[in-house]
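Before relying on records like the one below, remember that each one covers exactly one chain. Contacts with other chains, cofactors or solvent are not represented anywhere in the record.
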Amino acid sequence: MNSVIGKSFPLIDSGEKVAGKLVYGSDFSLNGMLYGAVLRSPIAHGRISNINTSKAKQLPGVRAVLTGKDLNLPNYSVAGEKWLDEQLLATDKVRYIGDEVALVAATSNEIALEALKHIDVEYEEFSAVFDPKEAMKQGAPIIHEQFGTNIAREMNVNHGDIEKAFKEADVIVEGEFDTGRVHHGYMEPNAGVVDWNGDTVKFWLPTQSPVLARMTYAKALGLDKGKVKVFQLPLGGGFGGKLEYKLHPLCALLSKFSGRPVKMVNTRQDELTASLPRVPMKIKMQLAVSKEGVFLGKKVKIIADNGAYMNYGPGILLSAATRNDNLYKIKNIKTQGFLVYTNNMPTGAFRGFGCPQSHFAQETLIDEAAVKLGIDPAEIRLINASEKGDVTPHNWHLGSCGLSECISRSIDAAEWKTKKELYKKTKDDIWVKGIGIASCLHVSGNRTFLPFFDGSSSEVRINEEGKVTVFPGEVDLGQGSKTVFAMIVAEELSIPIEWISVSDMDTETCPHGMGTFGDRVTTLGGNAAKNAAIDARKKMTEVAARKLGVEPKDLTLENAFFKTKEGKLISFIEIAEAASYEKAGATVIGYGSFQPPNVSMVHPETKVGNVSCAYPFVTQIVEVAVNKHTGELKLLNIVSSHDLGKAINPMMAEGQVFGAVAMGIGFALMESMVEKNGAVCNQSFKHNYIPRATDIPPIVSLLIESDDPHGPYGAKGLGEPALTAIAPAIANAIYDAVGVRIKSLPVNPEKLLFEINNKKTNDY
């Protein structure tokens, strides 16, 4: 059988999706199930003086009404024991508009929502703070009194001699950049069904990580994690927003006190007012450059608006403060980062995990430096590009690096030099054209979540009919990991992919794996599935050898047949049956695991650590047309080059690219949660605009194969970095068109027109 690796296959579950057979969170139900609803705080900061639930309890159909005073639960945080800042239900104090105050379970969703209206809450309102810079000042309202400050986390990164670097620089560019709060925009809202029966709690969830969910929910509920079981449901998108989420343990509490299974489904309004969107950041950056275009040093100050609770804030700040340092050969770095509590809605994990914010600042400044030096913006990136074999200031070991090839291939595909010259001729037109470039990098798995583990494991089970089931440690979010695992196992067992199915993940039957985030699935989960298939093949080969009277080493497995050196054949299916009968009907099980080599947690002080076994790189070029009179912007073309190590399934890889580019366009041009005094004003997609098909220009996707030594067949991550460079590439293209630097996102026509007119004023 020819190799399946590198071939395009459709998603193995696409038929079920198209036929509407998949059961998502909002579809799932259990017998006797109740429906839950949450009462949220209408004020940003204050004390709960009194709650009266008597009227709600009297409504027909209501089975449980809970407040924080009814519970005796510990504080918890997904950030770890150091930051236990959150309660499942507020007991005395609320910290943002949307904070959970009370719960209702009823026989219908309508009754549950009606009951919320009958809960009377009295608040003592406090002064609130919504700007992170203001929250850092002495005398600002303190969000969490136990910490005594609103600075939730401060970190400092220092490498080399920063003062010497800036003293020797020929050009210094600087800017202040601002990125807003953005929702994930997944199709399926957060949902779940929970059954608390006796001392065991079962969760059915559309979650990215059953393992992390179990760990967090057990702590939040004060349970041993062995009493918590999580069953993954299909996901209608995740992007970081389907990791641990408070809705699910709240649902568990209602189940416990009602004695019935309970279902909760967020409305779109819930999602846009009380979920965990992207962390807004204010970034001040300076870049020192020699006249030859060599990056000498970088100074950075980051202020990240964490919102009311910690969540993944420390890890996100760490990523923003360190990852882009490894993109280029820059040795002198000084970064100061602040994670700040405010009375805004809490933030969390989002595709890119801090990288889109910091890369936007860096890649914009690089473009500005190139212009000042008279160096082509693509060339200055080639001069400084990291290379295979480099060990970066943060001790990242680049076992593969296709950054230079990404840049070179992109400029060729985009006809970069030709377009640069051509677009100079449009400067006097109403519609002015420009072209911009930006690069980025990411991780393939990230050793920052658990100090003792960032690996994966897998099982491959072969029944007596030769049918194969893969039990992975990672979740399919819709990106196609089931198909990747099936292809890997088909490759190692030399059988048709149609013989293979891949299980949804759960904490009962699947081996341990961290789940799906941080671009870890293909590299870590793929290696685990490959090793499990190799183990299964070994066991099958031993049975075949006994059947054929030869040594296992004298057998090959090709096209679903075991073959001796003399050409004698026996089928995979025959051996599967024989293997089962040898052990009284037992299934052949192959076990596989993968612990990435030479990775480490970052040092708590220096922030140095080789956090991943593989690092993907991206370069993107965007062409735009800008109306000088209205500020309207049109995207004309995008070239997107990705060093993904090896494209296991090129069609799926391109699908990842197209989706990520669309998300990057939204981040750059239109997506923003408009807030006033802590309240989100645009609580629907009608007013919180996300990209439509008509907003997406033609995209050329180039897959660069650098053959990483640690990935399965050389593969590494793809899904996250594909959005990161889009915003700065658009900003740089806008500058090329109309000569204004965009440093605040999103850039809408009004903002762009203001900058154009301001430039005109300053030019006169």
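The chain is about 30% helix and 25% strand.
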